[in-house]
Amino acid sequence: MATAKRPAAAAKRRPVPASQQIKLYKWTGKNQAGKVVSGDIRATNEGVVRSNLRRQSITVTKIKQAPMSKGRKITEKDIAIFIRQLAVMLRSGVPLIQALEISIRGTNNPSFAQMLSDMKTDIEQGSSLSEAASHHPAHFDTLFVNLVAAGEQAGILDDLLERLAAYKEKMLAIKSKIKSAMFYPAAIIIVAVVVVAVLMIWVIPSFKDVFSSFGADLPGPTLMVIGISDFFVEHAFLIFGVLIALFAAIIYSYRRSEGMQEFIDRTLLKLPILGDVIRKACVARWARTLSTMFAAGVPLVEALESVGGAAGNRVYVHATKAVRSDVAMGVSLNVAMHNTEAFPVMVTQMTAIGEESGQLDSMLSKVADFFEQEVDDAVAALSTLLEPIIMVVLGVIIGGLIVAMYLPIFKLGAAIG
């Protein structure tokens, strides 16, 4: 198996010449039937536009450069689709430069088109694909760079890109499942908070004005709810300001502080029900990443450098560092994993079998398949379980408020009767 070497660190990325930057052109012309047609196309200059349209048998009558929007953010899905397309084109015999040109013309995201154009320029100036990708670490991580470098050295770039595409697609699928598991309860909680706030700030004060005309003692639950409402009305701006500031502070500190990241990630793993789903997803991503890299010929110690971050949780980042340190000192992978206490027994046992049989990548792939299926089943069960629980909680909270406010009316009706 080929061993991946990291591309030499480029001193500083060369700026893309203005002549090589992607621009948007709007054109008008006539097709073979003489019908007037128009459209827009992204290219480096007007000559490329004319050449492309000429190949489509279109006689150009007008070309005008148009302002190109900055475009939306480049997502993981954009990267996954690009890798899959590039793998298919290279396997079909399309040269790398031409494949990049096709991808540039095919995307509707100007930001992504510009990034691909920068990579194409680097390759035309002598860089390899892995080196060109390493200039964009926000979108092409160490895993991608190492595997592409291995594919280039072994002459199997199309095979490695197909593995990377499959890996990216599986990672996107599992992240999507975790998000869907968290979205429903989060949405319900937000709606509940809004409804309670509306009741406390606007609805209950109206009832209070009506009750004041009764001239009778109010029931205890009603007095308690009115007291809470008065507090909300008097301090509404302070309460919402503190909540917003607290939320912003948590987000800011999570992005800036490794300690906060680790605290939140550990807390997520300890959550009832949801924590188990997150743990299984982390293990699945960890095993899938290590399997992909090891199968591509990346040495185990070097592969472990990229694996921790792929799990998406700081607990597994630290666990992977400990595993890598032990493996570098000669400890077997399964023993090093067992020592961290971060991996289920099944994972360490399957890893041991893989090491003994010389099929570590295959065993890790099976572990990833198993835990991905576990995540699927857990998300389905979680959705089924959370729905009635959330409905009961909302019913108790909102129903309790409404009943408390109607108790004086029931009491008045009984007195009249």
What does this structure look like?
The chain has 417 residues and is mainly alpha-helical. It is built from 16 helices and three strands. Strands 2-1-3 form a three-stranded antiparallel β-sheet, with helices on one face. β1 (23-30) and β2 (36-43) form a beta hairpin. The longest helix has 57 residues, at 360-416.
Overview in brief:
The chain has 16 helices and three strands. The chain is mainly α.
Task: Using brief descriptors, characterize the structure shown.
417 residues, 3 strands, 72% helix, mainly alpha
Shape assignment: flat
Taking all Cα atoms into account, the compactness measure Rg is: 30 Å
Structural class: mainly alpha
Q: Report how far the terminal alpha carbons are from each other.
A: 91 Å
Write out the strand line-up for the largest beta sheet, numbering strands in chain order. 2-1-3
Count the E strands. Answer: 3
Taking the sheet with the most strands, its summary is:
3 strands, antiparallel
Average pLDDT reading? 83
Percent in strands: 5-15%
What share of the residues lie within helices? Answer: over 70%
Low-confidence regions:
1-13
Count of runs of 4 or more consecutive helical residues: 16
Order of secondary-structure elements: EEHEHHHHHHHHHHHHHHH
